[in-house]
Please model this.
Amino acid sequence: MSETFKTGTTAIADDRAMTPTRRIGTTSNLTDLMNVGKAVVGYFERAGITRVEQLTGRDPLEIYDTMCAVDGRGHDPCLLDTIMSAVDQANGNPARPWWTYTSHRKHVLQHPRTTPGSGNPMRRVESPSWLSTRQ
Model:
């Protein structure tokens, strides 16, 4: 499975982000998910998540907020897209490239809900500190 995308004037085929792999010698199965490689596994592990099952039913924004808090800084918003993809797959939905979540992430971050429990679990009640500097 391969995606071709353009960077400048050169087309590049990149199989790495699209192909799930299992790391040998670890109990983590997170790399079984599309878009999750060693770097993203590191973010998940620092947030206390080591298994796909731990993503089921979780709020991607809460996971992202935890990652930012643990690392003491805001991360690239594309990491949130990847978390959204991983949670979606853990919930039994088909695997999709992380960038298909970008427009939803932007909408969610620009239109926070005003009351708890008003629908979408990926919408927040109040803005975290990292939101004021990154979108």
